[in-house]
Amino acid sequence: MERAKEANRNEFGRKKRKSDNGEAMKMRNEKRKEKEDKNISGNLRFYVSSENDKVEIFDMIDRAKLLLSERVSLVSNAMILREVFQFYLSNNGGAPDQQNEGETESFKPYLRSPRDNCMEDICLISESSLKNLVAGISDHGLHCKERVEIDSFDTFGHVQKLTLKCKDMHTIKIDTSSRLPGGKFLVNLRVLHGIYSSGLRYAQYERFAKYAGIGVIPESAFHEVQDMFCDVTDDAVKESVSDALDDEVGTTVLECDNVDDYKGITIVSDARHGWRKNSRFSDIISLGYRTNKVVGYAVVSHGDDPCSQRHELHGVKKLYEGLSEKGANVHIHGHDRNVSINNYLKTQYPEVTNANDTWHATKNVAKELKKVCSGPQYQHGKTWHGELSDKSASIKTHTYYAIKNCDGSPDKLRANLDNIIPHYQNIHSNCAAESRCRTDPNYIPSKVILTDKVAIKLLDGAVKNLQIYKTPADYCSCIDTHYVECFNNACLIYHDKRIVYSDKEYKRRTAMAILDWNENIDRDYTSITYTEDARNPRRKTGKKHLKPKTGHYCANLLSRILDILYANQ
Fold first, then answer.
1. Distance between CA atoms of residues 50 and 48, nearest Å
2. What is the DSSP letter of 181?
């Protein structure tokens, strides 16, 4: 009978009771829920390389649990994690509220800063001075049991002179910086070196140091070492320019098929004025066209020539004097079409090929052609024509192509420009053999084909009025001054056009810009980003993400200064 009841219960379940329904069941469920633990669960996931590593970690967890209890099941995962983390933090200075091993009432490995102490004095300390401080306190502890404390300190720039005393009146005096020959502090000299190397002015440094609360080196000390920094920078930049010239000559010779074919180097030059108006100083820089490094420079002031507009010519004369002294010949000289330099090269250096910058020559092509491409309706057919309305930008591109593919021949450059009109007439007999208009049998012009004689005459006059067409010999070398224009922008790191510098300081800052440029120009890049710009839809070049700059030239300057100081001890 009992077996039959059990079998029936297993098959059909327990017989329903009155208490299983209604209020009785509801009350019973509520009491059960109140007794249940309302714990919050948390998931901790980890990743290992193999199944064995996972088993090993679980085994270590079980062994750690056995250290806390006789059975693993009596210790929850939350309990073991809390114990392990507290143990690790207490032994590695991560739990400031608990006393660590070796911690005393006065020493704490992890030191919290109370709100009231956040404005305390700060100083810089050198590694050797820190070791000396530890050694001094240790030596004191060998013969005295009393604890030393800071009695007083005096600030000298970024250095502090500390006086430590104990209750037995033992005194330890120590500086937070070692001293150089002559008694100067190493820390202060290193900070001054950083100021001079970074291009900061003293007023900028003073504000930074004052508001940071790290002490301020007096202006007298700043100017005391200025001459020394100017001298070592001048020596360093001369070596850098000389090495850059050797690299340029060597690279040019290697590109020649025969050593006898070498005629000289190619340089590009430009002038940068120190002020926006009536500049007292001007920097005239020449870069090697193949290495893009500074191979010559000249700083021209009002003392050399009171007229700022003549500074570039005066600087170019200095450049050629310097290159002649070093035995370097110039084959091609590119610049941004300074007429005085054009005349100077033709009269004084006829063997040098004068080359004007292609960008300056073509930047106004679209603007000049716009006069014949658009205008008021009543002037249509007189000063402009509708068939030319879509050609100003493409003709500018055509002029670039004409310069680039003239093979250094003025006649071929002019012939390429003359071919603009036949090309837009859909006559391609004189176009380049590799051009799409000749290689593609299905080529269809994207621009309106010229048919009207008035439009042809207007375009012919506009093309022949271009400076490139008038003086093709000045542009057939296809030289651009992009890099020297970039150097002028890089100079702004060290030169501020709003600030008046002394003669020495101005030359030093120019030298710093050259050292920085010669070391970091054309450095490697990590990637290139290509973006579409609505303002320049025809631009195809990407933006290079360059590797960080190096500062070996700064370390070299500091080494030269230290050599001077230790040579005079």
1. 6
2. T
